[in-house]
Design goal:
Length: 245
C-alpha cells in the first residue's frame, strides 16, 4: 500500500547507472530510505526532487530493505544550500548529524519543523546560530537534553561558577571530579542554551548572540555530541576547512 510523505532529502547515493538511493527525513514517518529509479536521467521527473536538501512531497511504495520512491513534487528546492560552499558544508553537517542520531521509520515529532526552520535561517546567512540551535534541540528532542538547572551528580541547584560536562550537563564543583570532559560555562552561553531549548523554534531567529557565546557553545556541543557517537562525523572536516566563523 503506497503512502505520501512530506520530507527533506538528507542523503543521496548513486545506484547503478541512473538510479539514486535517497534518505528522506519525513514529518510523519521519521527517516526513510528509498530507491528513486532513473532519478539521475536528465529529463527524469525525479531528478530535481531527489537532490540533497530538497524539501518535497513523495509517494512511497514500501519494500523490504529499501522502499521505492515514485512521484515527487518540490515544496522548497533549497537550491542556495547547494550553490554556496559554506552553506552546503553546514547543511551537510546537520543532515549527517540527523542521520546518525535518528532510527529508520521512527517518527521524531518536532525535529522536522526544526530542520526546516534551521535551513531557512541558514539560507539567510545565519548558519552559525542555526547549527547550534539544531544541535541543542536535536539532543533535547531525542531525550539527550543537557541538564541546565541542577548538578547531574547530586541534584543541587547550580546558579553560578558553572561547570558543564559532556556526560550530561551542569555539574557542581564538588561532583566535578567524578566526570570527564568538564568545561567552564559562562553565564551568557548558559542563557543562550536555555533559550535555544525552551523557546518556540520559530523565535530562534530573533536571537543575536555574541560571537564569543556562539564559539563557546560550539566547542561545548562538539564534545557533548561526540560523547554520544561511536565514530566521528565525516562532514565536520569539510565544514572546518571552509567556514569563515
Ligand atoms: Zn553535585
Amino acid at each position: 500500500m503506497s503512502y505520501r510523505v512530506e520530507g527533506i532529502v538528507i542523503r543521496v547515493r548513486n545506484l547503478g547507472e541512473a538510479d539514486r538511493i535517497v534518505t528522506v527525513f519525513t514529518a510523519t514517518h521519521g527517516k526513510l530510505r528509498a530507491t528513486a529509479r532513473g532519478a539521475r536521467r536528465i529529463r527524469n521527473r525525479l531528478l530535481s526532487p531527489t537532490q540533497i536538501f530538497t524539501h518535497g512531497r513523495y509517494l512511497i511504495f514500501p519494500g523490504k530493505e529499501l522502499h521505492n520512491l515514485s512521484q515527487a513534487e518540490i515544496v522548497q528546492s533549497n537550491q542556495q544550500l547547494r550553490d554556496d560552499l559554506e552553506m552546503m558544508a553546514y547543511a551537510s553537517y546537520l543532515c549527517e548529524l540527523l542521520d546518525r542520531f535518528v532510527d529508520e521509520e521512527l517518527p521524531v515529532p518536532d525535529v522536522f519543523l526544526l530542520l526546516t526552520t534551521v535551513f531557512a535561517l541558514g539560507s539567510q546567512g545565519r548558519f552559525p546560530l542555526a547549527a547550534r540551535a539544531f544541535e541543542v534541540r536535536l539532543m533535547h528532542a531525542l531525550g539527550y537534553s543537557p541538564q541546565l538547572y541542577h548538578c547531574i551528580g547530586c541534584g543541587e541547584a547550580v546558579t553560578d561558577n558553572l561547570l558543564f560536562t559532556a556526560e550530561g550537563g551542569l555539574v557542581c564543583r564538588s561532583c566535578s571530579s567524578d566526570y570527564t570532559n568538564v568545561m567552564p560555562l559562562s553565564n551568557g552561553t548558559w542563557e543562550l542554551m536555555k533559550r535555544l531549548i525552551e523557546w518556540d523554534v520559530n523565535r530562534i531567529g530573533i536571537l543575536h548572540p555574541t560571537p564569543g557565546a556562539l564559539a563557546e557553545l560550539k566547542a561545548l556541543m562538539r564534545k557533548y555530541i561526540d560523547f554520544r557517537l561511536d565514530y566521528p562525523l565525516k562532514s565536520l572536516d569539510f565544514l572546518e576547512t571552509i567556514k569563515s566563523d
